[in-house]
Amino acid sequence: DQSNVTSYAATIVTVITCEAFAGIWINAFIISVICMAWIKRKTLNSNEKILLLLACSRVWYLCFSWVYSFLSIIYPPFLYVHPRLQLVVSLQAFFNFSNLWVSVCLCVFYCIKIANFRNNFFIYLKVKIDRIVPWLLLGSLLFSLVIGIVVYDVTNKVHCNINSTGQNSFWKPKIKMDKHFFPSFFLTGFGFAVSFMAIIFSALLLLFSLWRHKRNMQTNSMTDLSMETHIRAMKSILSFLVTYSINFSSLILDMVYATQKGSPAVFLIIVLRYAFPGVHSLILIFSNPKLEKRLLRILPCVKFSICMR
User: Most buried among 174, 212, 262, 275, by the most CB within 10 A?
Assistant: First the structure.
C-alpha cells in the first residue's frame, strides 16, 4: 500500500534526522571543549587527541550518513543517476570505519595506560604509549581509507551496471549487484570482527588487572588510589563493550539486509546505527571529569535560555 510505504519512509527519515542531529551536537560539544583546551594550553595529551579525532569522524559520519539515507529513502534513483553520490557513499564508509577504529584505539589506550602487568613488552608499551598513539590513529585512518576506496570502486561498478541496463529496468539489476558487494562485505566484515575482538581483549586484560590489583591490596591490607582509577576505567570499557556489542550486531545485520529494503529489521538496524555515535559519546563525556564538569556547567544555561523564550 502506497500510504503505508510513505508513512514508513517518513518515520525513518524523522528518526534518522533526530538521532543524527543529536549525535552531531554531542560530538560537536566534545570538539569545542577539547579545542578550547588546545588553544589555552597549546598542546593536547594522548587521550584528548583520540577523543578529538573520534568526535570529528563521528560528526562527518553522521552528516554523510544522513545525506545518503535521506536520498536513498526519498529518491533512490538519484543515487545511481548522479555519479558524484558514489563519493558520498565512500566517504560514509571511510568515516564509519575511522569512527570504529579510533574508538578501538581509545579502548586500547585505556587498557595500556591503566592496567598493570610485569610483562616486558607491556611495560614497553606503557612507557611508549604517548608516542605510539599518533601511529595508531594514522593506521586507523589509512585502513579506513582503503575501505572507502573499495566501497567507491564497488559503487562505481554497480552504477555502471545499472546505467548499462537502462533507466526503465532500474530494479532488475539488483540480483546481479550482489556479486559486486562481496569484496566490500568481506573487508568490512573482517574490520568489524577484528575491532570487536580488540575491544573484548582490552576489557578482559583490564578486568584481570583489576582483579589481581584488588587481591594484592587485600593480601597486604593496603588502600590504593589506583583502585578507583581501575574501577572507573573498567566501568567505561564495560559500557563500551555493551554499546559495541549492540553496534556490532547492527552492522552485521545491516550487511545481511543490505539488499532487502523495506524489511521490518531495517528500521531497528537504522535506529541502532544512528544511536551509537551519540550514546557512546555521552558515555565518554560522563567518564571524563573535565567534559562532564563542562557539560553540567552548560546545561543550566541552556535550560535558562529555553525558559526565557
Answer: 275
